[in-house]
Amino acid sequence: MLNKYRKRNPDTLQRRAGLEAEYGITLKKDKGFYIYSRILIIIVLIVILVPVLYIFSLSIRTKETIYQDFLFLIPKAVSIENYVNAIEYAQTRLDVSFLEMFRNSIIATFSSITIAMVIASLASFSFSNYRFKGKELTFTAIIASFVIPAQVLLIPLFFILRKVGIINTYLAVIIPYVGFIIPIAILILRSFFEQIPKEIKESAKIDGASDLRIFLQIVIPLSKPAIASCIILLFLETWNEFIFALVFLQNPKFQTIPVAIAKIAGGKYIVPIGTYSAAIMITIIPVLIIFIIFQKWFIAGMTMGAIKG
Description:
two-stranded antiparallel ribbon; mainly alpha; MetI-like fold; 2 strands; 73% helix; 309 residues
């Protein structure tokens, strides 16, 4: 078996020896670690998936069997009535349909991510390729701005946006979103850009390529895993944002998904738990779609730095 493995992978043992010598690690299977790691993964999956599965189970139960189930998750009777009720409730009680909520969230989220990714990628390219006075101080200041709580800036931002006259417009949330997610994107992209071999960029320069061409045709294509990871993280950050959307978008027609869901649960009307669960499941759909689209690059980006720092 070993000889067969060596024939298929002639340089595997050399790479393994090199990694062991460079990082001082032993790349041998440890049965105990293998078992414990799998047990830990199963526990984490249970903690994450069971609440989601339970909400889904509640969303497809009938009113009569809402608290009746088999093995906690399996409903006795299945119905899509709760989804119909959730859509009707949003339209009649919140003066905004789910389609309008999705439209508002999509416009705010994708506009913010697009602007932030353009700015962050150019900034990260500069930080990783150029030397200029105060570079590390500027980088530290940008990253430090991320730790400022949104609540601290809420009132000043509200007065500024009202003075400018963009309250109850998409710009009222897009501008703060961009400011808050740019540090995350720069932190991720700079570390990845710095791992791209300098020889590739130098060869392109010798061939007469400009910095912009190197950025667009070399750095960006090689950074797809990092960009996908960044997009998913920024999407979750902006799609689920609540406090800015609640304060800056007071017109129901501009309400985003998190604000609408909060109003469904905390409004003056009693909402059946099945209807509320259906509303939650409807809002999860875009997150699943984004992850499915970018999952290949996301996993590659998360594992890219597992050995090389």
